[in-house]
Structure prediction request, 114 residues.
Amino acid sequence: MELYKILLPLEWRTLTLKRRTLGAALDEADGYVHLSTAQQVKETAAKHFKCHNNIVLVGCDTNLMKEPLRWEPSRSGMLFPHLYGRMDMDFVLWHESVCMTNGVHLFPNEIIST
Prediction:
């Protein structure tokens, strides 16, 4: 299964250099890496990254994750994937820079469904 992580450009650079990360400050504070499905990622960006014009969308293969992945309730009781461990470059399939126009992040249509 493919899941998605939104990172700021500096967080992406850190991941590429160190090859693993505990995630953003929110991830570290919560004790897990927040991930999203294709259906959740736009809302995640709007809620948590609305002040960031540039973000990096990272596609991750759950079959390659060695750390526990749990589906837990979050917004409106919807189940969100949480990775209890480090995010590792070994399960990153691809990444794409995403810019904001008129207050909305423009995700590639072929990647993220509406």
About this structure: The two ends are 18 Å apart (CA to CA).
